[in-house]
């Protein structure tokens, strides 16, 4: 889930920059309502909050991007009610009625440029952050503070339960989509599992949010060039079939490389990766393999 601060301290142009960046972030996920897909919810907040999308609304990535494109950015009032964003996330959005799934890792991305306003409500923000973390949601903060602000740094640190790796700083709105932007660090914070109070608990899940047990081997169908040494490969002009450990490695705009591993139930085939630009799709069919003994 993503919550965007739209208070008066952020210009309309900067809000539009962040909205485009949110679309860029969401585009990296296989969005949909299928068991191997990711779901996204979005709100804006300032004096109160404004609904944009529940987890069960977007049936595919295009619908999610359209929803985000139409997200209102005009503030209701010059306040930063961070406590409201945290509270409605727990009470309304991270519920089965809104499309949240039991047993799936849950993430809340807070995008803000400063402390709770009014400051007399700061303790309420911190209390709501504790309640959200205790419900099993990991909070990641994208700090858009344009100059060092000890109060904001302290509040963000406490919202994230002192986990500095879950706070990503980006003080230049215009560089959000650039090669030095915060995307790699934020993706790392979102995807990394953690323990402790408010950390990830329960079953292991894959990035798409389905509880599974990883099989030993799988067959992966990739319409690209075959790897150098696959264990068994058949190729035609459009499809390469590889039997082995399925994963996809890709380069981010920053130059960093990330790798996605596939997990699934034996005997089932999943759409694992879909690159709309290159029209590359990866299908993974999982098979059980008995461990050899000697």
TrEMBL record:
Lineage of origin: Eukaryota, Metazoa, Spiralia, Lophotrochozoa, Annelida
Positions of the UniProt region annotated as Disordered: 216-246
InterPro entries: ECM_Assembly_Org, VWF_A, vWFA_dom_sf
Domain of life: Eukaryota
Protein name: Uncharacterized protein
Alphabetical list of PROSITE patterns matching this protein: VWFA
Pfam families: VWA (PF00092)
Biased composition (Polar residues): 216-230
């Amino acid at each position: 889930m993503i919550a965007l601060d739209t208070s008066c301290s952020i210009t309309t142009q900067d809000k539009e920059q962040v909205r485009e960046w949110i679309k860029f972030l969401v585009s990296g996920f296989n969005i949909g309502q299928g068991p191997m897909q990711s779901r996204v919810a979005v709100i804006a907040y300032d004096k109160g909050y404004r609904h944009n999308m529940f987890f069960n609304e977007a049936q595919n990535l295009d619908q999610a991007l359209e929803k985000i494109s139409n997200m209102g950015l005009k503030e209701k009032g010059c306040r930063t009610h961070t406590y409201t964003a945290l509270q409605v996330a727990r009470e309304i959005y991270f519920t089965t009625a809104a499309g949240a799934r039991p047993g799936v890792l849950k993430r809340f991305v807070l995008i803000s440029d400063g402390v709770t306003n009014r400051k007399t409500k700061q303790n309420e923000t911190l209390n709501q952050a504790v309640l959200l973390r205790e419900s099993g949601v990991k909070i990641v903060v994208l700090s858009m503070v344009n100059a060092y602000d000890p109060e904001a740094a302290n509040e963000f640190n406490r919202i994230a339960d002192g986990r500095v790796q879950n706070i990503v700083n980006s003080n230049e709105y215009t560089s959000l989509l650039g090669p030095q932007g915060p995307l790699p660090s934020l993706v790392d914070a979102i995807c990394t599992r953690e323990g402790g109070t408010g950390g990830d608990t329960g079953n292991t899940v894959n990035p798409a949010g389905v509880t599974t047990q990883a099989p030993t081997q799988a067959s992966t169908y990739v319409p690209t060039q075959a790897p150098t040494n696959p264990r068994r490969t058949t190729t035609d002009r459009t499809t390469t079939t590889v039997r082995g450990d399925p994963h996809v490695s890709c380069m981010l705009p920053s130059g960093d490389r990330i790798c996605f591993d596939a997990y699934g139930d034996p005997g089932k085939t999943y759409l694992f990766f879909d690159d709309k630009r290159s029209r590359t799709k990866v299908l993974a069919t999982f098979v059980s393999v008995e461990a050899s003994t000697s």
